Amino acid sequence: MKKQLLILIATLLFSISYAQTVGDTFIDNFITYEITSLSPNNVETVDYDTNGGAVVTIPDTVTYNNIVFDVTSVGSACFFDKQLTSIIIGNNIISCGQSAFRQNQLVNVVIPDNVLNIGNYSFLNNQLTNIDFGSGLTSIPEQSFQNNQFTSLNIPDNITAIGWRAFESNNQLTCITVEATVPPTIITGTGDSFNTRSNIDLTIPTGTANDYAAATWTGFNSVAEGITGNFTVNHITYAITSSTNNTVKTTDYNTTGGTVVNIPATVTRGCETYTVTEIGNNSFLQNQLTSVTIPDTVISIGEGAFNNNSISSLTLGSNVEIIGNWAFRHNSLTSLTIPNSVTSISIYAFGNNNITNLSLGSSIEIIGDSAFSENDILSLTIPDSVISIGDNAFIYSDNMTSLVIGNNVTSIGDFAFAMNPSLSILTNVTIPASVTAIGEYAFGISSLTDVTVLATIPPTITTGGTYDTFATYRSNIHLHIPPGTMGAYVTDPGALWTGFNPVTEDALSVDEFQLQHVVKIITNPESLTITSTNSLQLNSYTLYTITGAKIHTGASTEISTSTMSKGIYILALDFDQGMLIKKVMIN
Q1: What is the mean pLDDT for each group of 10 consecutive residues in the chain (587 residues)?
Q2: Kind plus residue range of the DSSP H or E element containing 43
Q3: Residue 551 in contact with residue 543, Cβ under 8 Å?
Q4: Which residues make Cβ contacts (< 8 Å) with residue 135, sequence separation at least 6?
Q5: Rounded to 5°, angle at Cα 246 from 244 and 247
Q6: Is the pTM of this model over 0.85?
């Protein structure tokens, strides 16, 4: 009996000596824990021995005296200044106390979804470049991530509040994406949640810009609406065209942005910068715009892109290649320069404007139907790059006084240069040798008096009927054709160039015609000056009287006339690129 009693007492004493109570502490793998609950069995980390190293994993559970405890919290200052470079937070952690991981060398942290709150200063003074906020966290408290090295942040939609100086002194932070449609509350002014906002590009959900502005999310370098898919920056909506090359096109415009639009070369959404390479179809349709600048990065301008506005000022980037159908139709342009990069101007691209001064780039190959219809172009030079001129391309430029058609045009469409019979004043036109077909009513110009055709094989035209290529005006037009082509043009059976009055075989050769346009003779009181607009080299000149008597020869571009009588003379010029004869008047 006595022996049994002694055993019972020993057993009771053993049990009492190992009984656990709330507040007890113990160490496991260099981490000190404190028991916070015995029903259920929970502990909190309270300290760390740096002999355990710079890489720490906080476990889900820990065993002490054969009892398994869930590790549910990280105590205040538990890992403060422990030279940590990596921390893995266990999946049973619910809360992290003040300064829990303060002043270490942490670079990357994942906060598990089970964490519901973190304390003030919790990650202050680290080297964080990446943080993954778990789905259970609702607020980012004061100074919790101050003085780190973030360049970008993604704040999930479960965050509803960001505290005082939460991300202050992250001097490399340039982009923030916020997923919440209801803006989180933040601190503005003294103790600003982000300190310097002007260096930060902000991305927010589509359609939330006004709400974010009202919630004091202001002062950022840029604000983009649209976290995925299309996004909006400064009232312009963009669609990503290549994720590999980071290119976008415009798709829409909000008129609250005003009537003056300067499309940027690049645009930032979140941490990505995109190059604007396209103006999408109907992007700026009917927005009351008055001025547009398109950057050099843009290659194509889509159909109807700026149709039906009031644009009077337009700057086209130097790399635009394609200008789509109706792109700038129904605007108020008076002057237009098409850059040399443009290869195609499509249907009605600049129709229904007020263009008087037009400069066409040197790479245009196709001028589409009605491309410049119903303008008021005064002088037009079509570059040699152009191959085809569409129907109605320049119809109703009634005040045009000069028309030069490029030497590689092969076809001229119906009504291409037709003018109002009561308003037209253009008197002469030269059709280059390259032209093989001219459409109906193409030169329906009542004021024409001279038409020069350089092709030895006559271009096909429409003769007679309502839509005669020259309307009803042939009998008033002097037709100039190459020597030896009268039959092909006029007298052979089936010849189409009939009814002109008169017809003469005096059209210049192609070379001579070209020289006519680049060589000028300037009459001075005591001399004649020979000038040219390209690199022509004058070999010699010969001056004749009107009766054919030779009176002077030389090779100078300056000819003295001080001893000559007043009157008309003939000047024969021999250039390295051909011969030219001009009549000159000596006063």
Answers
A1: 45 49 96 96 98 97 96 98 97 97 97 96 97 96 97 94 96 94 96 93 93 96 89 94 92 97 94 94 98 98 98 97 97 97 97 97 97 97 96 97 95 98 95 96 97 95 95 96 93 96 81 70 87 79 75 88 84 76 80
A2: strand 41-48
A3: yes
A4: 113, 156, 158
A5: 115
A6: no
Instruction: Reduce the DSSP state of residue 367 to 3 states and report it.
Output: strand
Burial class (CB within 10 angstroms; exposed 0-12, middle 13-18, buried 19+) of 372: buried
Cβ neighbours of 224 (radius 10 Å):
26
pLDDT attached to residue 18: 52
502 upstream amide cis, omega within 30 of 0 = yes
Tokens 């149709």 identify what position?
307
Structure tokens at 208: 């939330």
Looking at 189-332, list the stretches that DSSP marks H as alpha helix, in order from N- to C-terminal side.
Answer: 209-214
Strand partners, 25: 34
Output the CA torsion sign for 93, 99, 102, 108: positive
Task: Tell me which residue has tokens 């656990």.
Answer: 20
Q: Is 478 exposed, middle or buried (0-12, 13-18, 19+ CB in 10 A)?
A: middle
Whether 316 and 339 have beta carbons less than 8 Å apart is answered as yes
**How many whole angstroms separate alpha carbon 500 and alpha carbon 498?**
6
Distance CA 416, CA 425 (A): 16
Specify the long-range contacts of residues 352-356, CB closer than 8 Å, at least 24 apart. 353/328, 353/329, 356/399
Given a contact cutoff of 8 angstroms between Cβ atoms, the answer to whether 503 and 486 are in contact is: yes
Instruction: For residue 567, count CB atoms less than 10 angstroms from its CB and return exposed for 0-12, middle for 13-18, buried for 19 or more.
Output: exposed
